[in-house]
Batch of 2 targets.
Target 1
Amino acid sequence: MEGSYRAACGFNEVITLNSKSETRNTKMDTIIKVENLCKVYYENKPYEVKAIADINLEIRKNVFVVFSGPSGSGKTTLLSLIGTLDRPTMGTVSLYGEDITAYSDTALSRLRREKIGFVFQNFNLLPRLTSWENVAYPLIPLGYGLKERFGKAKSLLEKFGLGERLYHTPEELSGGQQQKVSIARALINNPEIIIADEPTSNIDAESVETLASILKELQNNGRTIIVSTHYEDLAKKADVVYKMKAGLLL
Ligand SMILES: Nc1ncnc2c1ncn2[C@@H]1O[C@H](COP(=O)(O)OP(=O)(O)O)[C@@H](O)[C@H]1O
Ligand SMILES: [Mg+2]
């Protein structure tokens, strides 16, 4: 079965899953389940890219999960599929026991708004907006008025020590500060699942420590944390570390 899914995704190599992989399906409080997940970019074109193949895993509520692996191993692709930012070529992603693969774009964006906070590797802040406007941006489609948006963004930014940076634009902030703004934006809707893609790659060592404690605190507050990172010190804080290589989960 495993081999046939990989073959369907164009992967010839069949790697036998180790014993850790086979005990992945035992827990009750699973909130994310990924089955036979494959992603092929530019399918059937000469420059087709097989990004991930036959990924199977379950993530339990309130755990801190890290995906590690070299550049190009498929971490961003997998996090985007789990975070419903992209759709798989094959296989399924289930959230809270429901297969979301067939959801409409509207249903997926509603789900994202309500349940998922995504921190992008390059922060993806809107350059013309100030810190508080960036943080409050996801509240606009939810119908919050200006005062309420400002109040919520301000209190989150103050929590991250950026109370003096409410009116700065991203280019006026350091990498670590931009990252805090992007984390605050991911948290503004109070999501249960926080996904951060290589959050350590654009910040200094000190900011990595701050980031690690922010993520740990979020976990202590009941959130589920899913992170991709190369950074050993961050991986050490995780409950589960998955290693990826060439589109496969090792
Ligand atoms: N949008 C895309 N279009 C085409 N190929 C992509 C795209 N995103 C990623 N890839 C390719 O898919 C593979 C996995 O990439 P990615 O998921 O970004 O890995 P990682 O995050 O581990 O560096 C790489 O070979 C990359 O070049
Ligand atoms: Mg990446």
Note: The radius of gyration is 18 Å.
Target 2
Amino acid sequence: MSKNVLVVVYSYTGTSLGAARLMCSQHNWTLASIEETAPRSGAWGSWRCLLDSFLHRRPPIRYDGPPPSDFDTVVLVSPIWALRLAGPMRSFVTLERARLPHVAVVSVMGGRGGPNAAAEIADILGRAPIMTTAVTAREVEDGSCAARLQAFGTAVQSAQDSRAVVRPTLLSTEAL
Ligand SMILES: Cc1cc2nc3c(=O)[nH]c(=O)nc-3n(C[C@H](O)[C@H](O)[C@H](O)COP(=O)(O)O)c2cc1C
């Protein structure tokens, strides 16, 4: 049952990857990652992050994972850059828009911008994520987000399981 959730992460400095790995280990979910075809580093790399956000750019990416459409729910984990969704995750959501099933969003940030990223994903998809949350880099690094991420994951899992249970009842004539 838990195979039906795929976690897709983009991480520049490793913090979002830590959060994604934690959720996968808590729920036995599959992890897949987004890499940039032109990796960034140093001061110019950080400038590119900012420019991506200011200009709403979609940098070229490589996706290393199973087709998202094979899963019932995809959890997107990504950093915030300049109060917006990190560019490579913007690229992924745009490219995979038609193949993405139900989506949940986890933003990893210094402290501000999580709701903007969730709103941007909703805008690209033309539908709202089933659940969204944000954690700070500090909470990931010191482990204090573990209980919250576990509860979030449990809610995502139950939302998915309840869809499987409720649908036949709603369609049954006996329920009328
Ligand atoms: C260029 C750049 C811009 C950032 N802008 C923000 C921001 O606007 N708000 C915020 O809360 N954190 C911001 N951060 C912090 C990152 O979101 C945070 O460190 C995150 O944990 C990085 O995730 P990663 O290690 O997976 O790349 C920024 C980081 C970088 C490199």
Note: The chain has one domain: 2-175.
